[in-house]
Each structure stands twice: as structure tokens, then as C-alpha cells.
Amino acid sequence: MKLGRVRNIVVVAGAGISTGSGIPDFRTPGTGLYANLAKYDIPYPEAIFNIDYFSDNPHPFFSLAKELYPGHHRPNYVHYFIRMLHQKGLLLRMYTQNIDGLEKLCGIPDDKLVEAHGSFATAACHLCYTPYPAEEAKQAIMKGNVPICTFCAGAVKPNVVFFGEDLPEKYFQHAEDFPKADLLMIMGTSLKIEPFASLVNTVKSTVPRLLLNRDPVGPFERRPLRRADYMELGDLSDSVRKLAEILGWHTEIQDLMNSHENGLRSYTDPSNSSGENSDSSETDSMH
Ligand code: CNA
After folding, report:
1. Ligand 1 center from residue 186 Cα (angstroms)
2. Active-site choice (73, 86, 117, 174)
3. Where does Zn(2+) bind (predicted)?
4. Which letter, b or e, does each residue of 85-109 get, where b requires 16 or more Cβ atoms within 10 Å of its Cβ?
């Protein structure tokens, strides 16, 4: 990167980039959602994202959704590092499995982002797919109610992709993006969920793959590693900060983060006379 030989970085990310924002991931022992599912009263951890289970009983997912709905959490240094990749003109695309919306909130533009497992930004009936106003769905879920489809009376859910559901159309852009990548950065994912996990095997075999994660995952669990594979194990914020320091970007990222977060705070401050609370329009104004 320092030598300017890298111009098309693809970032592949998961829940581990948001643990620094206070959102638990799935699989970290002790703190991950899978270790703390007793309160949702479900028969097995994956049931919470299983569409058939949701059909019978949407309440466990809705309880979790209350915690995950965008608005409660702020992006962290790792998100801003990725935004800096974009600002430096190096980000070809970010593929995220996260549904917390923090990538958008930190200012990564829509055309650089693929939310492969959907988001809370839109909602629809889980049976007939009739769209439903996302804000109304959120209000109902927050009050502990089930939003109901006006067409078929099925339960409405935010367009977060469940096991057994199709991925959004944008995801299929990977067929063009990954062959163009000249560096793949894999961050904070256990690479356990398909088809997303196999994306990391679709870059050219000579392309460097950098894993920043607490533990080795996917192809990094096998030995020997590919010649161009490298992993930095440990806490993601530490590893990303170390990388930013090597690149000489650390202060710039901190400044960006401070000014953007202050902007977001004053923009979303209810005492703000405009009374608006739209992160996307705020983000637009940053570009
Ligand atoms: P996962 O299976 O929980 O894996 C997370 C990975 O990140 C693990 O390998 C952890 O060791 C690692 N990790 C966690 N925190 C750190 C840290 N601070 N430093 C370094 N490594 C860390 O989650 P995946 O994303 O791989 O699984 C995909 C699921 C998780 C997607 O379908 C998401 O929708 C779903 N999910 C998303 C969120 C979110 O949007 N923030 C939260 C929880 C689950």
C-alpha cells in the first residue's frame, strides 16, 4: 500500500468489527450472542435467524432486533479505517455481513458497500414479500408488537437475511469485484456462514489476503498458508491501529472520526433546531 502498488482493496467483514462499538458478535465465547441466548428462549442458537422458526414465533428475533436496531451504537476506529481506505481512493468494495448499519453511519458510501446479509433499512412480509414501511415496523417491534402484512397478514420482518433466504442482488457484484482485487482484507469474521465465507477464495491466487482477527479462520486455519496470505491475530482495534500507524494515517483517522462523530452527535441532538435525524443526508453532506 505504501508503495502505491495496491489500488483495488476488497474488504470482507463480520461482527468482529463492531464488538468495539459494544455490539456482541455471534461466536466469541462468553460475550457472543450464541453464548447468551437463554433470555430468548429458543431451542438452538441458529433458530433466532431461521425463517421457518420465525414463521412460528417471531418474538425471539424481535427481542434481539430491539438491541441491534441502528441508533444505539456508534462506529468505531475500525469502521473509520475502512472509510479512510475509501477516501484514499483504495477501496474497491466492502462486503459486510453486519446488519448494524455502522458502515453507512461512518460515511462509507452506498456504492462502495455491499450489505450481504441485508439491513434494517427496509422491511417486508416474510411470506409474500410485500414491502412494509421500515419505520412503522421498527415502532411496532420496539413496542413488543408484531408488524402485520396488510396484504396476507404474515409477520413483517426487517430485510435482514435469515438462514434459508436469498442474498440481496447487490451481493452478486462479487463476481466482478473479487477478480479485480489486488488486496483482500478480512476482518472480524469467523467465515462460518456460506455462501459469504467462500468469497475469500475467489481472489486470484497471487493476490495478498490479510486476515485481521482474534483467531485464524477459514483458509487461515490450514497449513501451509498461501504464499501471499498473512494474518495478524489479536484485538482488531489494536491491529488496525498498528496498520494505520505503519501507513502514517493514524492521526488523520482520529481527526476524521472525531469530526464525523461530533457532526453526527450535533445532527442527532434532539435540541438541534432542525429536529431532523437522518444519518444518510448527513453522510451525503460529507462527500
Ligand atoms: P461471528 O461468527 O461471531 O465471528 C466473529 C469473529 O470476529 C470471530 O472470529 C471473533 O473471534 C472475531 N472477533 C470478535 N471481536 C473481535 C475483536 N475485537 N478483535 C478481533 N477479532 C474479533 O460473526 P460473523 O460476522 O463471522 O458471522 C456472520 C453473522 C453474524 C452475520 O450473518 C451477521 O448478521 C451476524 N451478526 C452481526 C452483528 C452486527 O451486525 N454487528 C452482530 C452479531 C451477529
Report:
1. 12
2. 117
3. 125, 128, 149, 152
4. bbbeebbbbbbbbbbbbbbbbbbbb
